[in-house]
Amino acid sequence: MKKIVALPLLVLLLPAVGAGFIPSSMTIDVDDPPAIPSDTSVSTTADITFSWGFGAIIPLPVTVKVAVENVPDWVSVSVSPATFTITPSGITGGEQSQSVSITLNALKDVDAYVSYQMSLNASTDGNFLIKGSQASQDFYIMADFRDRGIIVDIPPEVSLYRGEQTQIYLNITNSCNAPIYVEIAEDNTTGFLFSHDEKVSVQPRETKAVPMRIKAEQSAQTDTKITLTYYPVGHEDKSNERVVYLSLESRTKSGGGALAIGLVIVVAAVIAFILWKKTR
């Protein structure tokens, strides 16, 4: 009777030896998390499945360790649970699954929508009966768009003669962390004709000079509203806008009438001088 009791006790004392003979394997299913904003965390879930073969006659626990590798320096990562226990049972083999949560926080600004590869690793040393195994699965993270606005530099006013045209520049600085499109539109342009690109692209931290031609078609004075709608490339749903104003004035040249009056005065003066000479 003592010999019968001693065998299970010996089995329980030897799980650390790692001399298992039953094959095991693991698989990992993990989704890419959403883009990571600068002010809040995001999470994704991974399902880890542990499988074992024929022969698990005694239910002995198996500890699985989970870790994320290849973590870039702009993000912090936590895994919960970082370890978990499975107790395989069933002489014909089987499998058990465990879900783990991966939480990510941005530590600093980087360019948005650039993919970084990371790896989720799960491993176990097995136990006295079951061999150890490990699995790894890549997933990808990216930073979300951070809207820090655009800076627009434009002359405050333009003065023209009727029929005259000039060129000014919209200097647009992208303060955001992603390439953006900027759509340019103007309102209240009565008396003036505008010509410019309606849509331009600007890289992060870049300043682009956009030429804008203005022609005065009639004498007028107005404050033109220029609306610049911007959004990250491929993400029009994150659009925002900046509004600037340009004072415009045009007038008709009066040089022709003044010249005619001047000629009349000169001619009259000459005639008066001739008459004065004759009377002397």
Brief overview, please?
The protein has 280 residues and is mainly beta. It has helices at 2-12, 255-278; strands at 24-30, 42-52, 62-69, 75-80, 83-86, 94-106, 116-124, 133-141, 150-153, 157-161, 165-174, 180-187, 192-195, 199-202, 207-216, 220-232, 240-251. It has 2 domains: 18-141, Sandwich (Immunoglobulin-like); 150-253, Immunoglobulins (Immunoglobulin-like, Sandwich), CATH 2.60.40.10.
Oligomer: single chain
- Proportion of helical residues: 10-25%
Q: Give the amount of beta strand, in percent.
A: over 45%
Instruction: Please state the average pLDDT score.
Output: 89
CATH architecture of the largest domain: Sandwich
Total tally of structural domains:
2
How far do the termini sit from each other?
A: 164 Å
How many β strands by DSSP?
17
CATH class of the largest domain: Mainly Beta
CATH topology of the largest domain, by name, is Immunoglobulin-like
SSE string, helix = H, strand = E?
HEEEEEEEEEEEEEEEEEH
Helix/strand-derived category reads mainly beta
Largest sheet: 5 strands, mixed
Radius of gyration: 39 Å
Spatial order of the strands forming the largest sheet? 10-17-16-12-14
Number of helices: 2
CATH superfamily of the largest domain: Immunoglobulins
Sequence stretches where pLDDT stays below 50 over 5 or more residues? 1-7, 9-18
- The rough form would be described as rod-shaped
